[in-house]
Amino acid sequence: MGFRCGIIGLPNVGKSTLFNALTRTSAAQAENYPFCTIEPNIGEVDVPDKRLEILSKINKSQKILPARLTFVDIAGLVKGASQGEGLGNQFLSNIKEVDAVAHVVRCFEDDNITHVNGQIDPIRDIEIIETELLLSDIANLEKRQTSLEKKAKSNDKESKEKLILIEEILEKLNNNILFDLKSLDEKNQKYFQEFALLTGKKIIYVCNVDEESAKSGNQYSEKIHEYGMSKEINVIKISANIESQISELSDEDRDEYIKSLGLAEPGLNALINEGYNALDLITYFTSGPKETRAWTITKNTLAPKSAGKIHTDFEKGFIRAETINYDELTNFSSYNEAKDAGRIRLEGKEYEVKDGDIMNFRFNN
Questions:
Q1: Other beta carbons within 10 Å of 348
Q2: What is the mean pLDDT of residues 311-337?
Q3: Residue 22 vs residues 5, 160, 212, 263: alpha-carbon distances, Å
Q4: pTM listed for this prediction
């Protein structure tokens, strides 16, 4: 599994259209009225990685198993969502279940598609959503604070520690400042994760532009790029209409169509890449005659924990890992040739797995 990416935004910004295109389904309704999506739509896609096919040929694998990414199309949020407007509480709770958020912002003019606030203003639209996420977090932390104060009175150490952290977070959020998780030690980072803050999710701004602006952007997407830079949030441009057309084409026709538009890659690839970057994710591979498979882990993950992605027994009984990086293996015609050349390394429990590593784990049963 890669990661779970929630697609959020105001109503009628193109979330469901984009979801349908990215997942090549018609599961999500795409209608011109607010709240056409109530229950979150969920779809899975393969994570594109050209290395898989090459590894499969080198090792003569019978099948290829890419990493999988889950998209969750969450209904449109509106001003007042944190107080329940537009079924907001239900929608906000869906965001807690994802790892990263693709915040779709309307960056196109179209008189035939109603804008919930009357006119296009991407920064205002972003701030409406982010204010609702922040207000929801404040309310949830204050509730948790009340509960923990009762436990703290009985000298519960953990409750006291959590209360201190909540006070620090609330001070930031009440001043419209996002809390920096990196400033915490390991124990407090664990507490922070328990709080499941909406404002703690990694965000990618997705500018939904018209077809003519897919390559170079427009005045609206430029504003979001500047805004994103000021908040250190990555921004990508996607035309949901183009992605819809791409989703109907064969792989060969899709590549030709993308080239004809002057685009480097489909929007799906760009969104996945930014998601991996935002979450500090990398890919390692297992490859042999049976299958070549991609596994998603966080950067700096040690070899035993990486082995645990395959099976918990691999982590518990870890002995060592035989490994070679993809860039080096492709200099040889086969894994055995690389092994005969002495290029396969033996790595122990302290080895940090790198992106592109091909791993063969040895473990005790």
A1: 12
A2: 94
A3: 12, 45, 20, 16
A4: 0.85
